[in-house]
Design goal:
The complex is a heterodimer of chains A (308) and B (237). By secondary structure, chain A is mainly alpha-helical. Chain A has helices at 18-28, 32-44, 48-67, 84-93, 101-118, 134-146, 150-170, 175-178, 180-198, 203-215, 233-252, 261-274, 291-301, and one strand at 122-124. In chain A, helix 9 runs parallel beside helix 11 (233-252) and helix 10 (203-215) crosses helix 11. Chain B has seven helices and eleven strands. In chain B, the strands form two sheets. A six-stranded mixed beta sheet of chain B has the order 3-2-4-5-6-7. Classes of the chains: A mainly alpha (308), B alpha+beta (237).
């Protein structure tokens, strides 16, 4: 069988693979999070304190957006969506959720971040605005459950960032290039790695967690109704954090990804390139092209879906 | 330079960040950033503005809040400022007139810039002093933006290197004086465009500078005979 080479060409830092970074961590006797922090400081001239402080500010905004939609419903700028985080929050409060406290908490926070985003609230794009709920939900839900310190959560965000940086380097983080797997998939990989660290797993386990999370979102298309970051994005954030925590839990049990993380990243890019244009953030296929999706288009833009 | 740690093309805070007001980095955050750049180019003095929207901006601006974000930028708000969603009300209170015009086709004709990205906006600004500015910008993805047109000149400002924009009397020697002031600070001009307005005997000039431009140079340029206005647009922090 002929293989198609979809490796990214120019301007790629050829050595910036997770396997190489982990070797560097071993050589230097530092964790992945510390390594990424040190690399950031070396490259940008920030001091360690500045970079830690900046990440801590990110965590502040994450916390606000993860709670913003729970007590009161928030509605999107377009009017298409809203209130799901609040609804689910009430359901958890009544003790009806079957998910267990950590996952249920993560799901409600992922919904909240995404709804706050759609309502023109303040969020951290992580790695993108469309996938902004996944990493905060995992870090905050696991962190609360395990009683992690704020410093540990900030450190976990550096671990997560390392995972995202490798994906961005050798694949893509844009739905328009790679479909939703590049946004929610990448975010889930980042979230899984962070969760493993907060649960007490080591970096190798964190990377296996990341690989397993990304593997299970491969092929996910980007088909937003009306081209807006709402349907299906909001609920994909909720389900992607479930994938991330499932992968993290398996990784902490010692389960390994048979396909190494770096190769999963390469596969994600190849799959993204093979996706048709209609399924890469154009709003012209998939759920956007359903009967209901087209009706919503008519309602929002006052013209026929076919006219776009 | 020998480095100790492997590094990629992204910074940590490209991945965990930026902080922004949703919902879309290109259609909301990028739009706000473009609005703010246009405001600076119009000397932070916007009395009225017409937003002409092209491509995807024309089609989807209401859903993404692109209109609110553009106006927020014109009011001087950053992409992470939560006042963004209330920009219509705030503009009304501060007496800034605005209107949005979704346009058909491409923005290229007769405007002085060559190729135009699908997410494009043209700002037609009138300042409090009655001066007119015509700014064209594109949101090129991930919140990154590019100014491509300025008062009929085709430009390329992405926020990576500073640009100087001057409006001066169309008479000999002014451009040489500016170049000489820059040379005295050992500043290299990377790119330069001039456009003359025959009816007013003025010229608009755009200079892309390698290296950071001190405020004192801008003041000295401002003092040159025949100089009407100078704006320095610095890369964002």
């Amino acid at each position: 069988m002929e293989s198609t080479n979809y490796e990214k060409g120019e301007n790629v830092m050829a050595e910036f693979w997770m396997s190489e970074i982990l070797k560097g961590c071993v050589e230097k006797g530092m964790s992945l999070g510390e390594y990424i922090l040190a690399s950031e400081c070396e490259n940008t001239g920030q001091t360690r304190e500045q970079a830690l402080d900046r990440m801590s500010q990110m965590l502040d905004v994450m916390e606000q957006s993860a709670r913003g939609g729970l007590e009161n419903p928030v509605f999107s700028n377009s009017g298409l969506t809203g209130g799901c985080a609040h609804q689910y929050h009430g359901y958890i409060q009544k003790g009806q959720s079957i998910l267990g406290p950590v996952l249920a908490d993560a799901v409600q926070m992922a919904l909240s971040c995404s709804e706050v985003n759609a309502a023109m609230g303040k969020i951290v794009a992580c790695p993108t605005a469309g996938s902004c709920g996944i990493v905060p939900a995992a870090v905050l839900a696991v962190g609360k459950y395990r009683g992690n310190s704020r410093e540990e959560m900030v450190q976990a965000l550096f671990t997560a960032s390392g995972v995202g940086m490798v994906i961005g380097e050798h694949a893509t983080l844009a739905g328009a290039d790679g479909g939703c797997q590049a946004e929610c998939g990448a975010a889930a990989a980042m979230a899984a790695a962070a969760a493993v660290r907060l649960l007490g797993g080591d970096d190798e386990q964190a990377v296996h967690g990341a690989a397993m999370a990304l593997k299970n979102l491969l092929g996910l298309v980007c088909d937003p109704v009306c081209g807006l970051v709402e349907i299906p994005c909001i609920k994909r954030n909720a389900v992607s954090v479930s994938v991330a925590l499932t992968a993290a839990d398996m990784a902490c049990a010692g389960v390994r990804s048979y396909i190494p993380f770096d190769e999963v990243v390469t596969a994600m890019y190849a799959i993204g390139k093979a996706l048709p244009q209609q399924l890469r953030e154009t709003g012209q296929g998939g759920l956007a092209a359903t009967k209901t999706g087209m009706e919503m288009y008519q309602r929002i833009y006052g013209q026929d879906y076919g006219a776009m | 330079m020998k480095t100790e740690y492997l590094a990629g093309s992204y910074s940590v805070f490209d991945i965990a960040g930026p902080v922004m007001v949703g919902p879309s980095s290109s259609h909301t955050a990028g739009a706000a950033r473009l609005g703010k750049m246009a405001r600076v180019l119009a000397h932070n003095s916007v009395r009225s503005v017409v937003f002409q929207l092209y491509g995807s901006f024309a089609k989807t601006y209401k859903g993404h809040g692109t209109d609110k974000a553009l106006l927020a930028g014109i009011l001087g708000f950053d992409p992470w400022d939560e006042r963004l969603r209330d920009s219509f009300r705030i503009a009304g209170e501060s007496g800034v007139d605005y209107s949005f015009q979704p346009m058909e086709g491409s923005a290229g004709e007769g405007t002085g810039w060559e190729s135009v990205h699908p997410n494009t906006v043209r700002f037609l600004i009138t300042t409090h002093g009655g001066e007119k500015f015509d700014v064209v910008g594109c949101s090129i993805g991930g919140g990154k933006v590019r100014i491509v047109g300025l008062n009929g000149i085709s430009v390329q400002f992405t926020g990576e290197s500073p640009i100087l924009v001057t409006r001066h009397l169309d008479s000999p020697g002014i451009i040489a004086s500016i170049a000489s002031l820059l040379y005295q600070s050992r500043l290299n001009i990377g790119n330069m465009r001039v456009s003359r307005k025959r009816h007013s005997d003025t010229a608009d000039m755009y200079l892309e500078i390698d290296g950071s431009v001190p405020k004192s140079i801008v003041e000295q340029i401002q003092e040159l005979p025949g100089m009407l206005s100078v704006v320095l647009l610095q890369p964002e922090e």
